[in-house]
Amino acid sequence: MTSLTSKPTSEQPYSKQYWRQGYQSQRQEESYDLEILSGSVPKALTGTLFRNGPGLLDIHGIPIQHPFDGDGMICKFSFKEGNVHFQNRFVRTEGFLKEQEAGTILYRNVFGTQKPGGWLKNAFDFKQKNIANTNITYWGDKLLALWEGGLPHRLNPDTLETIGIEQLDGILGEGEAFSAHPWVEPESVINDHQPCLINFYIEPGLSTTIHIYEFDPDFNLLRKQSYPVPGFAFVHDFAITPHYYIFFQNPVKFNPIPFVFGLRGAAECIKFKPEENTRIWVIPRDKNSGETVKELEVNAGFIFHHGNAFEVKNKQICVDSICYADFPEVDADSDFRDVDFEALSPGQLWRFTLDLETATVAKKIIEPRCCEFPFVHPKKVGQPYRYLFMGTAHQARGNAPLQAILKYDWEKEERLVWSAAPNGFVSEPIFVPKPDGNDEDDGWVLTLVYQGEKHRSELVILEGKTLEETARLGLRYHIPYGLHGSWVDYSHFH
């Protein structure tokens, strides 16, 4: 049940040269209507797609060590009456402004970017640049650019101008953080059946503390709890169900000495321990429920992202996650553009079934194809669901860049694939339900595609049921590979 719109080639379905070009910095900031290259934009598709990702891969010609260290650039696609208006703008963080003025790198960053001058210039300097580059969310009339290492930046949703650091009326303290992976629960049974936004941050130390927040639609704090877990925790994402938060603590060790002495970035000091089990923390959302936190273990590899989670009968929880057999460790002496895809383990979709009564975990590989960036219907967050959309490789086996969109049907155990190969490279798929849709897959899938042969990006709209291409719109320039985005059901037009 596979539909490929590009012809497979006898050789690799991608050009390494084209893929590398997608990591060139983009300094232009513009606002214009997109050109419709093919098809037509559905008039019922009305709202705004926000996307975030690293826009600068160098500071005045000095390359950064890893794309995760790149300054955040927001892209906004506003849909109205079959037209799409595009705007992009960098988040004016304190570090961005200072480095642009100085013309050089002034900060060490998590994934290995160092100040020029060697270890003597970097030793004992623990100040990190908040790069606001990972996700963007609109909640409680606030548009927030998120980076899990620091506080969010608030932006003007009409102009994308940076308003400044946002501490949510004092809920977030100085030096705290707000994860880049909030979940919006559409109808919360423990919060008067209203929508709520749930997020966390990790406070490191001799042991790690997980702080979890729940907010009502006006960004008022509904509940907060903190839970200490032993050891170092590298947790990028989490999962929710109506009654639980679920955190997978990856089996890693952190040796801070090379970081302290200016030899490595913090992430370059993380060592993955594949022989050790992942700890799973199941934390009751309602502290008055009488339930206690459960600790479970399973050998799960390394996990960045979870697709969804839901409760089933007899105190069981299913968690669907993208797992890697090995953590792609950051090598301080390497160029990330020279990655050998074939030598790395692909991300694959697994289902974990947690039994809270017996404290056991069953696991099953669901999709062996290389995949990442899972996305579920927004009304199905934390609930049983049928369809999961993901970025995937063009070929069915092995590791490769994401060039296609995969739709997995849990009920039929079937998949559909739309591919942009050989010259296109996709971003995270965003599923937007149709206003009058009845079925779970009745909607559109939006993805930003970098076209290597044109060195430009295109916005592609796919039909949710079939993954057939509905429309393709052209940008005037390329957008470097991004990370995460969100959809807002209204439009900002001028």
Automatic annotation (TrEMBL):
Keyword entries, A-Z: Iron, Metal-binding, Oxidoreductase
Cross-referenced InterPro entries: Carotenoid_Oase, Haem_d1_sf
Entry's Gene Ontology molecular function annotations: carotenoid dioxygenase activity; metal ion binding
Cofactor(s) recorded in Swiss-Prot or TrEMBL: Fe(2+)
Gene Ontology biological process terms, A to Z: carotene catabolic process
Free-text cofactor note: Binds 1 Fe(2+) ion per subunit.
Protein residues bound to Fe cation: H181, H236, H305, H484
Pfam families on file: RPE65 (PF03055)
Keyword Oxidoreductase among record annotations: yes
Family statement: Belongs to the carotenoid oxygenase family.
Name of the protein: Lignostilbene-alpha,beta-dioxygenase-like enzyme
Taxonomic classification: Bacteria, Bacillati, Cyanobacteriota, Cyanophyceae, Nodosilineales
